[in-house]
Design goal:
The protein has about 140 residues and is of the alpha+beta class. Helix content is about 25%, strand content about 45%. It has helices at about 15-30, 35, 55-70; strands spanning about 40-50, 50-55, 70-80, 85-95, 100-115, 120-130. The relative contact order is 0.21. InterPro entries: DUF1348, NTF2-like_dom_sf. It holds the Pfam family DUF1348. This is DUF4440 domain-containing protein.
Length: about 140
């Protein structure tokens, strides 16, 4: 994996912050851990629920495991706020487990970017709600 630059770059405007959020949504919906990890610095710090990660290799391993458990994962992100090098988003995603139980997971993320547009910190708080298949909002 390389540490290419990832436009748009800070400082963010409303337009470029929206572009960053859409790019993240698109990448996560690919369910390709290596693709997702390229948006983060080599030593990126994460808190995802109660899991703490550091670096792209840990991110890739985490996402592989996540998408083996969270089947037919589909995500929507919404820009909440931004500053020069930080973005806050609200999100929800739907998935089901091996037994067929559907969930909608809600959360907030705080992102911090370096000058090359790579995310150096990601802090996510997430809650899961069991739902029926007929309650789904996100198309797979």
């Amino acid at each position: 994996m390389t540490s290419d630059k990832r436009p748009p770059f800070p400082p963010f405007t409303d337009e470029t912050a929206q572009q960053k959020v859409q790019a993240a949504e698109d990448a996560w919906n690919s369910r390709e851990p290596e693709r997702v990890a390229l948006a983060y610095t080599e030593d990126s710090e994460w808190r995802n629920r109660d899991t703490f990660l550091r670096g792209r290799a840990e991110i890739v391993d985490f996402l592989r495991d996540k998408w083996q458990r969270e089947l037919d994962y589909r995500l929507r992100k919404e820009l909440w706020a931004f500053t020069d090098d930080r973005i806050a988003v609200r999100f929800e995603y739907e998935w089901h487990n091996e037994e067929g139980q559907w969930f909608r997971s809600y959360g907030n993320e705080n992102w911090e970017f370096d000058e090359d547009g790579l995310m150096r910190r990601r802090y996510a708080s997430i809650n899961d709600l069991p739902i029926g298949a007929d309650e789904r909002r996100v198309a797979v």
